[in-house]
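Allow me, if you will, to draw on your knowledge of protein folds for a short while. I have a record of one protein: its chain in single-letter code and its fold written as discrete structure tokens. The full record is reproduced below for your convenience:
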Amino acid sequence: MPDAAGQVSRALRVAPPDQLVEAADRAIRAALGASRTEVFIADYRFSGLWPVLDPELPDAGFLSCHGVAQRCFSSQQPVLDAGEDGRCRAYLPLSVWGERLGVLLVELPAQPDPAAVEAARDIAGELAVALRAADRETDRYRRARRRERLSMAAEMQWDLLPGRSVAHHAFLLAGQLEPAYTVGGDHFDWSVDGDRLTVTVLNGAGNGLAAALLTAVTVNAMRNARRSGGSLVEQAELASDTIFYQHRGTRHVATLLLELDTRRGVVKAVDAGSPHVLRLRGGTVTPIALEQQLPLGMFAETRYDVQEFAVEPGDRLFVVSDGVYAAEPGGQEPYGDRAMARSMRSTRLQPATEAVGTVMRELHAYHVDADLRDDAVVVCLDWRGSGRVDDGCGR
């Protein structure tokens, strides 16, 4: 039992990338005496968890375990489901660096002791790392994530993302794009580098493939500056010049660039024409007032200034695009006037990974189930404070 994770890890290292779940199944059965395993992958909208080993699993069988698997996915804690026959289904979160991929089901002959549960959790961690790496080599797990065909623009946007959540001892960060299968230009990006967290949120211009191409150029220009050691201002200015010299001012991208000093809890910001940043402290939602500067790419050699604001332990920051803030379905007042603050307050007891989904679901409800007319991005940052040590999974 102590080397169970090692056995599975070795099996995963020699398995072809498209056969990881089969290799894990064989190794887990041998290491833990399991009678069955299944890997459930979260879809693009986080609307469900879908089986990989047995994609044709009958609905009755799928639905009978879906609620328990969803509880494991949401809580990021192991969940044990004992059956009347003495067998026990253990549901383990498949997560890596705070990014939630899905859930591993391991069916055991009896209720496991704490050591066995911890061994199973370590195995799930090994499998999560392997699945994330395999995404570059096979389409199998991406196919499991999609419930319908992605548009070409959405395919580009999802491939461009850094992930959908990341954990650090000082923060938990999550983001979500909608409409998931047809999103065009809205986007988010982030990078953790030592004591610095950089987050950018783009309010994409236009629709479809043209918007996705413009966003891809913008994101990669900012990444190029950042990876070359450039400051927040240099990132904004390189992206702005790149867009301008391609489009001569006919295309531009409203972008918010943030850089959090994880030691001091100080945020530097360049507000290049939106999106909006709001702080949830206690039960109060407050917009962070920033000086709005020109969108990226509007004029040649535009120069940008940095502003600063502080965060306190327990603060939650939301960054939303205009597709969220300014949504006016059916002639209603903009979602950001009052309804958005109510939805944000309702997330107080949820982690950031759940909060982004709550705000998006409330946005969909505000549209009375009509399709979103504009792309929408929600990014949520929970600031824990530099002194707290946590692995992002509640341990």
Summary: The two ends are 21 Å apart (CA to CA).
